[in-house]
Amino acid sequence: MIVATETAARPSARERLLAAADELFYAEGVQTVGIDRIIEHAGVAKASLYNTFGSKEELVRAYLANRRDRSTGRISRAIEGVQGPRAKLLAIFDAQAELAASPGYRGCAFVAASAEARAGGCVEQATDDYRAWIRALFLDLAEQAGADDPAALGSQLNLLYDGATLSARMDRDPTAPITAKAAATALLDAAIKPSGRRS
Amino acid sequence: MIVATETAARPSARERLLAAADELFYAEGVQTVGIDRIIEHAGVAKASLYNTFGSKEELVRAYLANRRDRSTGRISRAIEGVQGPRAKLLAIFDAQAELAASPGYRGCAFVAASAEARAGGCVEQATDDYRAWIRALFLDLAEQAGADDPAALGSQLNLLYDGATLSARMDRDPTAPITAKAAATALLDAAIKPSGRRS
DNA sequence: ACGTGAGTAGACAGGTCTGTCTAAACTCGC
DNA sequence: GCGAGTTTAGACAGACCTGTCTACTCACGT
Questions:
Q1: How far apart are CA B163 and CA B143, in angstroms?
Q2: What's the rounded Cα separation, in Å, for the pair B145 and B95?
Q3: D22 C1' – A49 CA distance, angstroms?
Q4: In strand C, which positions have an atom below 7 A from any protein CB?
Q5: What is the pTM of this model?
Q6: DSSP B117
Q7: Angstrom distance, A166 CA to D1 C1'
Q8: A185 touching B, CB under 8 A?
Q9: pLDDT, tens digit, for every residue of A154-187?
Q10: In chain A, which residues have their Cβ closer than 8 Å to the Cβ of B189?
Q11: Is B157 exposed, middle or buried, given 0-12, 13-18 or 19+ CB atoms closer than 10 A?
C-alpha cells in the first residue's frame, strides 16, 4: 500500500483537482463547468482525473462531501465555544453572517447542485445527508433550550436559516443572516417560557 | 398587422411552445432541457420556435415572465378577499402551502433558473424583478399592520417565506409553509404592540 | 544503469447542443 | 382553382461535452 506523499510539499493531483473543482463548481455550477476547465485550472492531465476519480460524477460527489465536511465543521466550531443552547442557536446565525459576507459567497452549494442535478442522483443523497445534520442540530439545541415544542422551534429556526441562505444568494444581501438572527431571537423569546431564572 | 387567432380554438404555436417550456423547464431545469425536447413536446417544428422567439434565451425569458405573472397573480388573488393586513400576511403562507402541496411542485422556478444561469444574464434580471415585488408586498403589509419596525418585520416574514420555499423543495416537505406560518404568527404578535383594540 | 509507475499532452470517438437552411405541405382569402 | 405566406420535417454546420487511448517524460528505489 502506497500512502506516502499524502501531505507532501506540493499538493497531490487529487488535492489540486478537488481544490479546482471546489472553486469552479461552486462559482459557476456543476453542470456548466466542464472537465477541460477543471483540469486546466488544476494543472493536471485529463488522464489523471479519470485515474483518480473515474468519472465526473464521482468528482462531483467528492466535491459535495468536501463541502459538507467543511460546512458542518465550520458550524460546529462556531458553537463549541459558546455557553448555553440559546446562545449556541444564535451563534449559528453569526457564523452564517460571517460566511455570507465573505468574498465569493454564492449561497449554499447543495441548493445550487440540487437545482442542476436530476432527481434521485448522487447529488440528492449528499444533499439529504447535509440537511439532516443541520435539522438534527437545530432540534437538539431547541430541546436543550427547554422549548415548549422543540420540534416546532427547531423547524422554525431552520426555516429562518434556509431563508437567510436563499436571500443572501438571490438578493446578494449579506445582511440576511442578521435579519434572521433578529427573528430567531423573537421566536426564542416566544417559545421558551422562563422557568424560574430570567435571561 | 395580423393579430388574429390570438385565443382561437386550438392554441397557437407560441402558446404551445410556452406551455411546453413551462412544463419541461420547471420539471428538469432550464439548462438540462434542450430545444429538441421542447419542440417535440409542443408538437411544432424547430423553425417555428426560432421564428417566434429567435433564441433559446428569449424562450427562457418568456418562460420566466410567464412564471412571474402567474406567481404574483396567485398571491394577489389569495390575499384580495382577506380583510386586514395581518390576515393578508398569513394568507400568503396559506397560498404557499396550497402550492407546495400540489403535484409536481419543485420549488421556486427563479431559484432553480438562477442556480443554472450565469450571473448578469437575463435570468438574474427577471429574478430581481420577481423578488422585488414580493419584498415590496411584505413591506407594504407590515406597514399597514402597524409594526413598530415595518422594514424589519417585512424582511423577517420574507425570510420565512423564502425558507419555506427552499425547505419544501430540498426536503420534499409540503408542510414547510405551515411551519413558516406558525413562526410568522409569533413574529407578528411580537412586532405589533396592540394599540387599543385587541385581536 | 534500469525498470516501474505515475503524470503529461493531446488526438480522437461518439454524443449532444444551438441555430440555420432547404424543400415540401398546408391554410386561407379571393 | 390559385397564389402568398406560414408551418413542417429534417439535414446540416459548428461548437462543446465526457471519456478513452497512445506515446512521451520524469522521478525514484534498487
A1: 22
A2: 19
A3: 17
A4: 6-11, 16-23
A5: 0.91
A6: S
A7: 65
A8: no
A9: 999 999 999 999 999 999 999 999 999 999 999 9
A10: 190
A11: buried
